Amino acid sequence: MACKKDINNVLQNLNEWKKTSDTREAIKKDFKFKDFKIAFSFLTSIALKAEEINHHPEIYNVYNKVHITLTTHDLNGISDKDEELGLFIDQIYKLFN
Q1: pLDDT in single tens digits along all 97 residues of the chain
Q2: 27, HSE (Cβ side, Cα atoms, 13 Å)
Q3: Dist CA 10 CA 87 (whole Å)
Q4: Environment class of residue 22 by beta-carbon count within 10 Å: exposed (0-12), middle (13-18) or buried (19+)?
Q5: Could you give the CA distance from residue 78 to residue 66 in angstroms, rounded to a whole number?
């Protein structure tokens, strides 16, 4: 089970993630790649990690752009799972960018 975490502490550990502008407690980040193939490969890596830790992000993809939102719906906020997935996403972005 996920453990709730302070959103500001999680944001300090991540690279350029921001709070969403809606009413929920969630964080978001936009990514841009050379082309669709690289963007989709990035998404595939995230999907595999998400399945591994049983925590699935909200993902929006148009051509070479990817928008990701992380939140834990069961907790109505940010959890250790969001932080873990955010750190993974930041790490693999360096490999694809």
Answers
A1: 789 999 999 999 999 999 999 999 999 999 999 999 999 999 999 999 999 999 999 999 999 999 999 999 989 899 999 999 999 999 999 999 8
A2: 25
A3: 10
A4: exposed
A5: 20
